[in-house]
Sequence to fold (175 residues):
Amino acid sequence: MKLLAFAASSNSKSINKLLASYAASLIGNADVDILDINDYEMPLFSQDKEAILGQPDEAKAFYKKIGEADAIIISFAEHNGSYTAAYKNLFDWTSRINQKLFQNKPMILLSTSPGPGGGGTVLNAAVTSAPYFDGDVRASLSIPSFYDNFDTETQKITSQEILKKLNEAVATLVE
Fold:
């Protein structure tokens, strides 16, 4: 299985990237590609910019990566209750290539934050909207209080309850 995993965050120390990478590591025999959305940075989307630039190569490359994958894991950072500006911009540009940008790929959607909310608001938005963009959401999980539930030294979930839920979620990608 070719698995694409990334954090919907541009933070170089993203806890959501740690989570996406960890979740991907739980799937045996997967060829994992961990993306950094910073590699797909583009001007702020607008129809005016699109008229001038057309479809940027970065958006085309991101769309191609999705198309080459058998399954996707995305972990969403939450900024003021919504998507990060970096992810939203990448999403906006890519959806102009094809509104069905997730290309019917099975996916699990995750979120985490240092606080008790665990990025639940943005995760709910992502889960609700993904099917409109041809995402086959198999499972979702919000992990609250990241640093209380993830050991950054060993790079592992420490809560057995959360680990069980995460294992159940990733198992849906290989069914």
Notes: The chain has a mean pLDDT of 97. The chain has seven helices and seven strands. The first helix runs from residue 15 to 25.
